[in-house]
Amino acid sequence: MHTEIDNAEKINKKIWEGSWGFKESILINLALLIAGFVLEFVLSEYKITLPGWPINLVIAIGLIVVFWISNKILNKRVTTFLSSVPAAVIAISFVMFLVLLMAFIPQHRQEGWIQAWGLTHLKNSWPYLFSALYLLAVLAHTIFKRLTKFNLKNIAFFLNHAGLWILIASASLGSADLKTFNMNLVLDRAIYFAEDENGTTQQLPFAIKLLEFDIEEYPPSLAIIDNKTSKIVTKKGDKLFDVNAGNKFNWDGWQFEIVQYIPEARYKDGQYESSSTMGATPAVEIKAVNVNNGIEKTGWISAGNFMYEKQLMPLNETLSIAMTIQSQKKFSSKLRIFKTVSEYEDAEIIVNKPIDAFGYKIYQVGYDERMGKWSKMSSIQLIRDPWLPAVYTGIFMILAGSVYLALTGRSKTTKD
């Protein structure tokens, strides 16, 4: 009977009366979000610029102190709400909503309303600032509440919530210290300047020289193409044909045989010959026989490159057989990184395998695609994020809390 009465009271309870729950939490977050977007629109000419080190560290410590004081001086209804499940769930949901917007909307300057409302720079916008600060306040009050009666049972809770607080604070406040630079290295030339995200040239405290650039490529394939559109013609179950010498394959009444395959060749006097000179390209000599009318063709096929034109073998007025452009298996650069003229270290970077140097992560990102394997230019990206260890600490604490919770939960179940 009492339960039914309590449930009825909860249903009929007006907003802001009694203890606050999900309704109040949604309204608070909506108000912060709307206020943030309005401020962003009104102050669209003034972009939020977060301070860098060490001021952002002072701000992080200051927030902890402010939240601790507010936990002591605010009335019980407010502190109870801020440390409640509804407050945490809705605050996290609103921040995640903004993070999803960052993922779906390109975060670079665009003209029009999308820029004016801050949707192109959400991480440095008023809506994100308000939502993130509110979530940090909720997490802090929740942590302080549990710390007053801390015991072994609360370890997982503390690790999860403190880890999330550190993760959000580090990722948000540390963004001011995140530096991204792009460099186009040229063979045998030491370069000490790079472009930042705004295209401004910046001098680096070290220089990098490209010693060697290398590409590993997959073997090319052969395909039937439409003479008008140059698109590959495929039928159900069709696949591209391998180029190994001696290979035979059939396609729609045609029989093909690869007479010879030269991985690196140069074109001379109407045919291809093996060569390792610059611009050498894969080439295939192929024999084609039409089984319906007995027509026989023999010729060379090549995908071509910056030095040689591509070579096709026409089969009839509508179709030809051609070689596909080789795709890259991996590409890498051998670098010499100078601290001074006489002090340097050599390193190799491979795609998706960055190296560390002078506090920067250095990534292999590109090369001169027109020159292909003969490229004398290598594009690298340098990223400096001094707050990354703090972010990893937060993630590790969340994982540790989850593991601890799983182990203690399993042990409880076993005892029961």
Compact summary:
The chain has nine helices and 16 strands. The chain has helices spanning 2-12, 22-42, 55-73, 76-82, 85-104, 113-116, 126-147, 155-173, 388-415, and strands at 179-186, 190-195, 201-217, 222-226, 248-251, 254-268, 271-274, 281-290, 296-302, 313-314, 319-323, 328-338, 344-350, 355-357, 360-367, 377-384.
Give the mean pLDDT: 89
Structural class: alpha+beta
Number of helices: 9
Share of residues in helices? 25-40%
Order of helices and strands: HHHHHHHHEEEEEEEEEEEEEEEEH
Termini separation? 31 Å
Number of domains: 3
Q: Please state the overall shape, judged from the principal axes of the Cα atoms.
A: elongated
Proportion in β-strands? 25-35%
Q: Major β-sheet, in short?
A: 5 strands, antiparallel
Number of strands: 16
Which value, in Å, is the CA radius of gyration? 32 Å
Parts with pLDDT < 50 across at least 5 consecutive residues:
none
Q: How would you characterize this protein structure?
A:
The protein is α+β, with helices and mostly antiparallel strands. The chain folds into three domains: 12-178 and 389-415, no CATH class; 181-216 and 329-384, Tick-borne Encephalitis virus Glycoprotein, domain 1; 219-326, no CATH class. Helix content is 36%, strand content 29%. Strands 5, 6, 7, 8 and 9 form a five-stranded antiparallel beta sheet that branches. Strands 1-16-15-14 form a four-stranded antiparallel beta sheet, with no helix packed on it. β12 (328-338) and β13 form a beta hairpin. α8 (155-173) runs antiparallel to α9. The longest helix is centred in the last third of the chain and has 28 residues, at 388-415. The chain is elongated and about 95 Å long. The two termini are 31 Å apart. The model has no long low-confidence stretch (mean pLDDT 89).
